[in-house]
């Protein structure tokens, strides 16, 4: 079964680079730094759960088709093995080519649906874009209101290895998004 990659998270690299360049020019003044975890923020949004369900449904459909193709290829291989002693060299070659063609069709389907530029990731990007923009706008409002110079994203491989809780802006961003948490979800 093909497992799609984790959700696309907000990338702040370009923004951070420009802010860092600006900070270098600003000199040695005190900088205010915070961080968020966009994976955590996404997980708190009901829209994200709906998106995940849509993606899972589509992924399941495509995986079913891949399974059907696997079974067809396996059947062709079994037929070939059971009949190859009866086949002429030409018939053997035709059967092998048919199997190879089905394997290639399956690979093309897999790439079309789950490849780097496949339908799964295009759909994921399309569905997540409005939610990501909402989060990014909320982060910007919180950062501006609280005069943060830098806000890093701690999600996935962002490079932030440590951040003191006093710099964690997740709760403020969730409030900005109008999301309230119960005590058990913290």
From TrEMBL:
GO cellular component terms, semicolon-separated: cytosol
InterPro entries in the record: Chaperone_Skp, Skp_dom_sf
SUPFAM superfamilies documented for this protein: OmpH-like
Superkingdom, natural source: Bacteria
UniProt entry keywords in alphabetical sequence: Coiled coil, Signal
Ranges in coiled-coil conformation: 52-112
Signal peptide annotation: 1-23
Keyword Signal: yes
A single GO molecular function term of this UniProt record: unfolded protein binding
Record keyword Coiled coil present: yes
One Gene Ontology biological process: protein stabilization
Record-stated family: Belongs to the Skp family.
Protein name: Periplasmic chaperone for outer membrane proteins Skp
